[in-house]
Specification:
single chain; 725 residues; alpha/beta; Spore Coat Polysaccharide Biosynthesis Protein SpsA, Chain A; seven-stranded mixed β-sheet; three-stranded mixed β-sheet; 29 helices; 12 strands; 6% strand; globular
């Protein structure tokens, strides 16, 4: 594939200088390293003071990793907080500054692509409609084409996608600008879907904006991103940080509030050190097609799934390949109009996490590959540890319990040893333990504290969340519920990792975006391991330090009190999962202005456009009627049949196809297998033949499915309760 720009990226100056990049990374990671080293040395000194035992060595080893991850996350928020005081256009590394003040038409053509898999086609097209209208309002619509790239396997949903797309194009005048394509085979999932687009149509465009089926983006921000891509030819991927929207359940409201309040600090901190060596999150990002096509064709990993086979978390790897080849990948941290939706319940969230867990653990093959830049290895490492961190935390808690139990069972008093901390600071072991605990809790809660402080001090942020009281009360609710959810997620992630290590691969399912709650039976069934573990662990924790002679002495229950947040989260995992899944409780919180986001209190124009979008719905072209839905409508309805056949290649009917068609006419759709029905739907001549047959043949010569569908057209529109034609 050729590009209009003959200059290679290595010959172009980077947006941010290499020396300044190296300095930033040195400052950030040396700060993380020194802080973690100090905490680990403090704990080692405490163990020495207590009398080092063999059990302390694995505790120390796990603590080094866990505290390092905690420090890394906390310092992202800390550096992001201080970076915010430099100003949006001051010393901040801001790639979007390239679009400031730029006017005039775009020089290149760009594509907006939305891969879909078994989604609600009306809502998908509503998002396309909103983005289309938003870009049109900028006056630059001629520079963009739109592609709905379907990998849908449900045959009825396939037909519904076609009718929704046709209605959308009719009402927006989008034929020749909004395209629909369904792959016959969905090889390599989403990565293969995007790759198929790039191979067949990518040469017509400079860059593509990749969306998810639940993505929304403001047209002005899309235009600015396109200008940045054109202004900086070295830029390979421009990623935005999407905000979560439309949360109805308590769980999604917690997520979107936390991401909206805390997220900007982490994003700014991440941008502080990654700069042009960023990562790609799979959607809401601009990608330059030429280097993507040249370098990002992902090979299958050696061996079978789950560690081998196709790479599930392809986005991280695609960004890594870009950066390794000299292209820049930037995080557009100041782009505001970028949105997505979240799974509505904890159980749906964990189902998605299972797929991400397998994909990220596959990166163990790649993290030690040769010639990968430092930033690439760090992104792969953080992605892996996002899931390995849970089993390590679980192991750390088990080891701590074992050490406490062993001390209780031994009955030996601890002989104090002189330690460096004692010699230098003159504090006892209890004070030393409390100081370490305070530091760890500070690192744990520092991002929340800084985010709340920032929101309270910056007037437009404070007003956006509804004022001081909603911010503080929302942060407190989010913190308490997150503490209860964390142990359940820890156990779930641990089970995921063990499942993957045992060789169980994940399937490819569509994401559930709407529900009105988790059933109690399902909650107790799924969270049974957490509940059982919590009960056993509570009994052990109470037994540690318990004395029959002094059963009411509070000191005897010190270990159980220390473990109580973990134990409460495990025992209450099912009730918390059910409560957070309920939309009515989410609405109650919204009514009281709790856990609200600026996008809820003052919806941006792109959200209003999406809420009002209805171009995909038209009674004249509809495949959703009960008597003639989906596949049946594609055969019976003249308009639906016409749209479907127009998207197929013209052909002559073959004996095999004719035999399948006759079987379908005589026995109905249920008389054929899914693959046979799919073959019929791809055969234009057979679809036309069947359409004529259901209308012209006698009713006793075809299956009742077809006669009922034909009869449904005879209903009067003014008949009470009639299904409109």
């Amino acid at each position: 594939m050729q590009t209009d720009d003959p200059e290679r990226p290595a010959e172009q100056a980077p947006f941010y200088g290499r020396r300044k990049t190296t300095f930033r990374r040195f400052v950030f990671f040396s700060s993380v390293f020194v802080t973690n080293l100090a905490c680990c040395a403090w704990l080692a000194d405490l163990f020495w003071r207590m009398g080092f035992q063999k059990a302390h060595y694995p505790v120390m080893a796990v603590f080094i990793v866990l505290n390092g991850l905690l420090t890394l996350g906390s310092f992202h928020a800390l550096f992001g907080f201080f970076a915010g005081w430099t100003g949006r256009k001051g010393k901040a590394a801001r790639i979007m500054s390239l679009a400031d003040g730029v006017e005039g038409p775009l020089k290149k053509r760009h594509a907006v692509v939305m891969p879909v898999y078994n989604e609600d086609s009306v809502k998908t097209c509503a998002r396309i409609e909103a983005i289309h209208r938003s870009i049109a309002a900028t006056g630059h619509l001629d520079s963009f084409d739109f592609f709905i790239l379907s990998d849908t396997r449900d045959l009825d949903l396939w037909v519904l996608e076609e009718t929704s797309w046709a209605n959308l194009c009719r009402k927006l005048g989008g034929f020749g600008r909004i395209y629909y394509r369904r792959r016959r085979t969905n090889e390599n999932r989403k990565a293969g879907n995007i790759g198929d687009f790039v191979r067949k149509w990518g040469g017509n465009y400079e860059a593509m904006l990749v969306l998810d089926a639940d993505s929304l983006m403001d047209g002005n921000d899309i235009l600015r991103m396109a200008r940045v891509m054109e202004a900086h030819p070295k830029l390979g991927i421009l990623q935005t940080p999407p905000k979560l929207i439309r949360g109805a359940s308590v769980f999604t409201r917690l997520q979107q509030f936390a991401m909206r309040l805390y997220g900007p600090l982490f994003v700014r901190g991440l941008n502080f050190w990654q700069l042009g060596g960023g990562s790609y999150w799979g959607h809401n990002a601009f990608i330059r097609i030429q280097p993507f096509s040249e370098y990002c064709e992902l090979p299958a990993l050696p061996g079978r799934e789950p560690f081998g086979g196709r790479i599930l978390s392809h986005d991280f790897v695609e960004a890594a390949l870009m950066v390794a080849r000299g292209w820049e990948v930037w995080l557009a941290w100041d782009v505001e109009g970028t949105y997505e939706e979240a799974p509505p319940t904890l159980m749906d969230h964990l189902v998605r996490d299972r797929r991400w867990c397998q994909g990220n653990l596959q990166h163990l093959w790649l993290i030690f590959a040769r010639k990968l830049p430092f930033s690439v290895r760090m992104h792969l490492f953080m992605g892996i540890m996002a899931y390995l961190g849970s089993p390590l935390w679980f192991l750390f808690l088990l080891l701590g319990t074992w050490v406490a139990w062993d001390r209780m069972e031994s009955g030996l008093s601890q002989l104090p040893f002189e330690s460096l901390v004692d010699r230098w600071f003159g504090i006892d072991g209890v004070q030393q333990s409390l100081i370490l605990t305070a530091v760890i809790f500070t690192l744990l809660f520092l991002p929340k504290i800084l985010a709340v402080l920032r929101a309270l001090l910056v007037p437009h942020i404070r007003r956006g969340f509804g004022g001081m009281l909603p911010i503080v009360s929302g942060a407190m609710i989010e913190t308490v519920v997150s503490v209860l959810l964390a142990p359940s997620v820890m156990v779930a992630h641990t089970m995921m990792v063990l499942s993957i290590l045992s060789g169980r691969a994940v399937g490819w399912g569509n994401q559930n975006r709407e529900t009105d709650g988790t059933a109690w039976f399902d909650a107790f069934r799924i969270h049974a391991p957490q509940l059982l573990l919590g009960l056993i662990w509570t009994a052990v924790a109470i037994r540690i330090g318990y004395s029959p002679d002094e059963p009411f002495r509070l000191q005897n229950y010190a270990f159980a009190a220390w473990m109580s947040p973990i134990l409460a989260g495990l025992i209450l995992s099912a009730p918390v999962s059910v409560w957070t899944s309920r939309s009515r409780y989410g609405r109650a919180l919204r009514h009281r202005s709790l856990l609200c986001t600026p996008e809820e209190l003052d919806p941006p124009e792109i959200l209003r456009l999406a809420d009002d979008a209805n171009a995909a719905v038209d009674p004249a072209l509809d495949a959703s009627r009960e008597a003639r839905r989906g596949l049946v409508a594609a055969i019976v309805d003249p308009y639906v049949n016409g749209v479907h056949v127009s998207l197929l290649e013209a052909c002559e009917i073959q004996p095999e196809a004719e035999e399948l068609a006759e079987r379908c006419l005589a026995g109905g759709p249920a008389g054929l297998g899914k693959e046979e029905l799919s073959e019929l739907l791809y055969h234009s001549a057979a679809m036309l033949m069947m359409h004529r047959a259901v209308w012209l043949r006698a009713s006793d010569g075809i299956h009742s499915t077809w006669t009922r569908a034909v009869e449904s057209y005879r209903q009067r529109l003014d008949f009470p309760g009639a299904d409109p034609i």
